[in-house]
Amino acid sequence: RMTLVDEQWEWIGGVLDANGAHVLGPLFPGKWKVSLRPLAGGWAWEREVPVEVTPGSTLELLCEIELGAGRLQILDASTGEPAASRTVRLNGRKALQTDGDGWVELTLTVGSHRFQGGGADFFPGVPGGEGDQPVTVEWGPDGPLVDSIRVSFPE
Predict the structure, then answer these.
(1) What is the DSSP string of the chain?
(2) d(CA 21, CA 61)
(3) Section 3-29 average pLDDT
(4) In the sheet that 135-140 helps form, which strands lie side by side, from edge to edge?
(5) What is the pLDDT of residue 18?
(6) How far is the CA of 77 from the CAs of 97, 144, 152, 154, in angstroms?
(7) Confidence tier at 8 by pLDDT (50, 70, 90)
(8) What tens digit of pLDDT does each residue of 34-72 get?
(9) What gap in Å lies between CA 70 and CA 104, rounded to an integer?
């Protein structure tokens, strides 16, 4: 999914085709920020430099995003045992389910990602609705730079 957001938080978006292309518009003149995220969620990529749209112009953007695929084992911080069949939040939004041995398989953007324990009723900021502080994991082209992390889960 591709979204353009202007300085007044007006936005326009659409789903990219198999070639990664989509025609958006018409756009009002001004500065727009580009945001890309998979339909399944979990990560987002935003262009740091705003895109300037002028009247009557056509704009073509090429966004190169480096992804890495890999596995990460989630351990329960209180026991050190694999967090089997547990819900973990990725970057504060995407709910992931670990397998029977506590593993998750992901394709993410290269960079830092946050993992946090949370149940089906996970709501950040609500007492009892989240685990402890998120654990940050560096993700490279070959997946996570660590094999496992310890995550706290709500009681």
Answers:
(1) -EEEEETTS-EEEE---TTS--------SEEEEEEE--TT-S--EE-SSPEEE-TT----------EEEEEEEEEETTT-SB-TT-EEEETTTEEEE--TTSEEEEEEESEEEEEEE--TT--TTSTTSS-SSPEEEEEETTEESSSEEEE----
(2) 9
(3) 71
(4) 94-97, 87-90, 111-117, 135-140, 143-144
(5) 76
(6) 17, 19, 5, 11
(7) low
(8) 777 776 666 666 655 567 777 777 777 777 778 899 999
(9) 8
Per-residue CA distances from 78 to 43, 149, 155 (Å): 28, 12, 11
23, two tokens? 């025609």
Two tokens, residue 131: 């685990």
For residue range 76-107, list pLDDT tens digits in order. Answer: 999 999 999 999 988 877 888 999 999 999 98
Unique residue bearing structure tokens 């292309």: 21
Phi-psi region of 25 (alpha: psi -120 to 50; beta: other; left: phi over 0): left
